[in-house]
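REQUEST ID: PR-0412
SUBMITTED BY: lab tech R.K.
PRIORITY: routine
TASK: structure prediction, single protein chain
INPUT:
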Amino acid sequence: MEKVPMTAAGYNRLQEELKHLKAVERPAVIKAIAEAREHGDLSENAEYTAARERQSFIEGRVAELEDKISRAEVIDPSKLGGSTVKFGATVTLADEDTDEEITYQIVGQDESDIKNGLLSIQAPLARALINKSVGDSVEVSTPGGSKVYEIVTVEFK
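STATUS: complete
OUTPUT:
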């Protein structure tokens, strides 16, 4: 069974979503299905069809979350150290063309949010950064062409 790396914050978010789906969404959709059944002919009942589709989505998401939580490998970046980039590292990069600096934390796939500086370990940039050190340059192919970044800092918070 393949482990899914994630931070404690990402793990907690998945657990909260699962709890919400089971405690709030699932009972609400069951109630909606029961109400739609009372309206009569199910073959022409759009409310019933929509509620069943919603139920299917919820059950699928519950199964997906339970699978990810069971395979989770929670990694605490503050307990890591060193000067090389690895999962959980907060990395400051300088664009070698513009000298513009940007900071990302390398996190699990399910917790990535590029707008908030959370870069998925599966992203091409993150894969290029792994095992590199401060001062190293990495080249990444982007939709807008090739970009070269220099690693300015590597921290574990």
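NOTES: The beta strands are 4-6, 72-74, 90-95, 101-107, 118-120, 137-142, 145-155.
REVIEWED BY: pending
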